[in-house]
Amino acid sequence: ARKLSDDSTIGIETQDNRMIVTAGRARFSIPTLSADEYPTMVDEGGTEFTIPAKQLLSLLARPRFAMSTEDTRYYLNGIYLHTGPSSDGSKELLYAVATDGHRLRMTSTEKPEGMSSDVPHIIIPRKAVNEICRLLDGAGADDVVTISITARKIRFRFGRIDFITKTVDGTFPDYTRVIPSNHKSTITTDAEVLRIAIDRVSIVALERTKAVKMEMNGEGIVLSVTSPDMGTATETASCTYEGNPLTIGFNSSYLQEILSQHGSDEIEIKFGDASSPALIRKIGAVDDLSVIMPMRV
Questions:
Q1: What is the domain partition of the chain in residue ranges?
Q2: CA gap 30, 34 in Å, rounded
Q3: The whole model's pTM is what?
Q4: Between 123 and which of 23, 112, 168, 239 could a Cys-Cys bridge form, CB atoms 3.0 to 4.6 Å apart?
Q5: CATH class of the domain whose range is 179-292
Q6: CATH of domain 47-176
């Protein structure tokens, strides 16, 4: 249609499994398929519930940076959506989890009214997550999304939009096994202050590894990056540190992405040892956390 002149009158008709398009002296004959062969996207049954659009956007947008892009581990190429009890067992929550094996992000919200506890646990594909977040970005405070979930598909309806996607046919790993619980030391700091400090020293980091070393003691965090070509950079970030002195390395880009989720919130970072994953969360947010694997530095 872009090739036709603006003042063309377009005619469309079907003849023997073909669509005939005419415009002025131009004529196109395009093969078609039977509508009966179009796949059925809506499954009968399943669980249906409603959730405020802003609440859904927050649930899906926060963990999506951690979704994997590797085709070999296709079951990580999306967000794992499931219900479960809160850490203290006082209520049921709706969880959204993403991981690529290097970092993990878990977010949660109160289970919406009308959502049964036996709703299928599903993996929403990466492209669908990004598209839903894009569509919901302009949602108003009073907008509501109706969600229908079956074992194979999930459907989002809001306004004039009806979005249906197949779920990832795979089993999401038991992510709770990688959430560390044996903590020996803890940092308490402003997330944005630490992120900016890491961003500054990372200017000299190698593009391939982006490694930043963190040396922690009672006086603060000494951040350092060393590159054979670019030199070295160090900065001391203020914090409250409890535990024995510890030196550990992380991918600076991964760490900054996690810290950016918290703005200027007061956060805690809990460590086991230099070879164990670290847990990052806002103070008091037990069921909203991130995990990052260390690097050798």
A1: 9-38, 47-176, 179-292
A2: 13
A3: 0.86
A4: 168
A5: alpha beta
A6: 3.10.150.10
